[in-house]
Structures are given as C-alpha cells and as structure tokens.
Structures
1.
Amino acid sequence: MKIENEYAVQMLIEVLYEKELINRATYLNIMKEINQEQQRKVA
C-alpha cells in the first residue's frame, strides 16, 4: 500500500493541531498552502 506524501503531511498537520502542538492560525496557514499547491498541480 502506497500513501501519497501530500496526504501523509496533511494528516500529520491535523494530528499536531488536534494535540494542540500547533495553534489554529498556523494550522490554517499550512492547510491554505497545501490547498494552493494542490490547485497548482491540477492547473
């Protein structure tokens, strides 16, 4: 089974946020960057 790097990163960021190891602003900024990168790959 192969897990895509982007998916793994997104899950790790969500875990860090849930464990309160990163704050909401940081979480939102990272997720925004991930979404923008994914959109760039599609376009």
2.
Amino acid sequence: MQEFEMIAKTLEGLEEVLAQELTELGANNIEKGRRMVAFTGDKRMMYKANFCLRTAIRILKPISHFTATNPDEVYEQVKAIPWENYMGTAQTFAVDEVVFSNEFRHSKFVAYRVKDAIADYFMEREGKRPGVRVVGPDMLVNIHIAETKCTLSLDASGESLHRRGYRQEALEAPLNEVLAAGIILMTGWRGETDFIDPMCGSGTLPIEAALIARNIAPGVFRQGYAFEHWPDFDADLLDEIYNDDSNEREFTHHIYGYDNNPRAIEVATRNVKAAGLSKCITLNVQPFQAFEQPAEKAIIVTNPPYGERISAPDLLGLYQMIGERLKHAFAGGNAWILSYRDECFDQIGLKPTKKIPLMNGALECQLRQYELFEGKYKQFREEGEKLDKAPEQRPASKGKRKEFASREGRKQFFTQGEGRKEFTPRGEKEGFAPRREKRFAPDDKEGKRKFPPREGRKPYEKKFEKKEFKPRSGESYPERKRREAREKGEQQ
C-alpha cells in the first residue's frame, strides 16, 4: 500500500508520549510539533493509529498544502481540488477550522468559504451539492492556517478519540481519557506493580491504567470512525486490526480506586463494568484520610480537586492531608499528583523529583512526582540512595565534587592534606600576567602585612567641595528632573 502524510493531534504536553507511541506502532518520518505529531504510513497505519493510540485526539490526512492571504484565495484553492475522489453528493460534510494568523481575522468566515468552495464544485460538476451537517457528518474537513500557510485535511477519526466508548456516566469535570492515559504513560508504569488512585472520581485513571497494563487497544469500545465513510474504505482490513488481540497480555497485579463520595464509586463501577475490567479493578468508598500502607509495592497516580471546576471545603487542608498520608502511609512508594495551584503543591510539604507542565482543559497544570523513602532522610542518603532531580531543578555544574560517606570522612580528607590543592603562582599559569609584588609595612620582617591597632586608626575622611549646578544648553529630560529634585531638596 502507498504511504501518505498524516497528522495526529493531541493535548499540549503529550507530544513526546504520542511520538513514542507512534514509534512503537511502526510509523515513519515522525516529527513533533505543538499539540501534534506528523508521520507517514499506509492505510493500515491510519486504521491502527485511530484504533491503538492512547494519547491522540484525532488523526488527519492532509490532501492539499497552499498559501493564501485572504478567504477568497482559500476558496479558489479548495475549489480546485478533485472532490469526487473523496466524497459524493449523497454524503454530508462539515468544516472545522484552526486559524493562527494576522491575515485572517474571522476564522468562522474561513470555514464558510471552504464550505462554499466544496458545494460550488459539485453544483458546477453535477448540478447538485452534498448536504451540510454539523453533528455526525459523513465527511469532516479540517482547514489549518498558520499565517499564510494553509493545510486542508480530511478528519479520519470523526468523533474525538478521547471518547473511548466505555464511559456510561460522568461526574462533574471528569478527567479527559487522553490526558489520563498520557499521565500514566509518563510515569513509566506498565503493570509491574499495583496501581492506586485514592481520589478516582468516575474511574478514568483506573480504567486507563487497566487498558495499559493489559495492552488493550482503546479503540475496542468505539462504534465507528469517519474513514469508514470514505470511498476507499477497506472493511476487511479494519476487522483484521480489530480482531487481532495477539499483543494483549496478562496483568498479575491489581488496581485500586477509592473516593469519599459514594455516588462517584457507583458511577465508576458502571464504567468499569462497561469496559469489562471488573477483574482488574477494585473500587471502594474510602476517604484519603483513611489510606493505609499497601501490602504490596504500588504506585499512586491521582488528580485531586483544584478549587476551580470542583471545589473543596478546605482546599489547602486537603493537600496538607495528602502530604501527611503519603509521608506516613506510603513509605517506599512512588506518587504522581496532577494539580493546578502552586499553593496547593506547597501544602503537600514534600520535595518533588519531577515537574511536568500539562494542560487540563484551559488550566495550566503540573504533574509532580514524589518518591517516598523509608526512615529518616539522612539514613536514606548514607545507604547510598538519592532522589533524582528533574532536569529543570538541577543547578549548573561547578565541577566534579568529591563524595564522602560521612562528615568524618570529609574532615579526614582535608586535614590529611589530600584535599589541598598545590599553589601555582599566577605568573606561571598560561594566559595570566605576573602578579605585582606586594607592598608591606617597613617594620614587616616576616613578609606579613602589619596594621596599626584598631584604637589608633583614624577614620577615613575625604572632603568634597559642593559645586553649584550650572545647567547646560540642550538640557535633557532626565538631567532636568534630577536638577529639579536637588533644588527642591535644598529648599526644604
């Protein structure tokens, strides 16, 4: 099959994870951009990208690249495309626009011109036009404009890929499935330990974790894709991809979801059953205050309330409690927390080892990692353990330092002379001029500088003559302001 260009759209901050997914899927010519990753592949790759990618929102297939400075030029370029190769008059279509340009001030008008171009093309060719349907069209056309560069694409996904199909019901402000999967993939967890979400809400994180642990493609729950309405749709190829479960694996650990809201656990339970993952996930009503040390090694990934879309009676107290529970009931564990406010993170009272910026809707959030150690921190370090700092937290290197097992070792190192550096006169070093000879007091016979006693010293005095200010011709504004300020001060 022939390869062609494709674009996978994603959320800001998940580009690296999506690129890694595409690499594992076998895509070619992968290039990361802002909220997107470009790649190439054949029809099979396009079907697999829609079916298997966890962090993609939609897959686009570009069919035309051109430049334009106004909507009329866009109209002419779109009308020149042979649209009979992509759709017919019996189908419905809609236009989606993404515009970042100073030349195009009204993005909706650009979408209207694209719609008119497609409709006029069929009217002139066949005497009738395809219908326009905003919700659930057969063909979704995407126009992307960056300044004067335009890309016209066909949307191969249709409904956003974050709508997996297993969610039967949701509470207020549920976590986006694509973001949930991206967070879990960022942690590096693939099912090697137990997984715990102590604030699971409607169960998005536990369900996505189970799909990752068992390597079940997220597309198994979807009802359909937009490419199924294309003239070259291959139903047998899609069935082959859908029925291939050879990459699925067993999950020998367990996933736990807790919440203090019984209603949330009811909703999460229905969603877990719809996904067919009840054997992997256990849900219980339990507040975070009652969290106990897990019997098995586990990872915590959670998304507490931010005080924006979901409020809490005592938000800062909630985060303080989270830090206290992690410190005392999760020793030796690894916790990842997604939140929005710095003051909330500060209340946790633990030093993060990683800070990853992510967008949760319109909120600029952070995903922070906390590695919890057992016992005292000093003992933890003496045993040779250390916490990995995030790249942005590492200070600039000042050269290699000598490492010591203890303070006594450091003291012994320097007192025995091993840590002393041999002095080299400045004049003998390459690239330095000889240092001037030091001047000493006449009574200094040992080569040491002598100072008179503190009592006998005279204070340093220097008299300044006060000169009258005489303004020059062409006095600048700053000079004038300074002069006026001085004159005002003298008058007072």
